[in-house]
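Hello forum,

I keep getting stuck at the same step: I have a sequence, I want structure tokens, and every attempt I make locally crashes halfway through. Rather than fight my setup again tonight, could one of you with a working pipeline run this one for me? It's a single chain of 72 residues.
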Amino acid sequence: MAKQQFQPNSRVRQVFEDLEKYLEFCVEYGYRYNEAELYNPRSYVYRQYTKLISGKFVKNQWIENSKPPQHA
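Reply #2:
Ran it on my machine without issues. Output:
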């Protein structure tokens, strides 16, 4: 009887790699991390993440939140 060998699924591995990259993005740019929003195009944070991946400008929340409030 042959011993069963575990073959990791490449799609599952890719999801976990994407989650790690998404977490790094959220920490680096100051966004709220919610793993349920990965691959959700309605999520503002995920849209910012896809902009970063495509090489476009992404707003850094750490800088935005450190600015003093502007009074009129």
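Residues 38 and 46 are 6 Å apart (CA to CA). If your local run keeps crashing, start a new thread with the error log.
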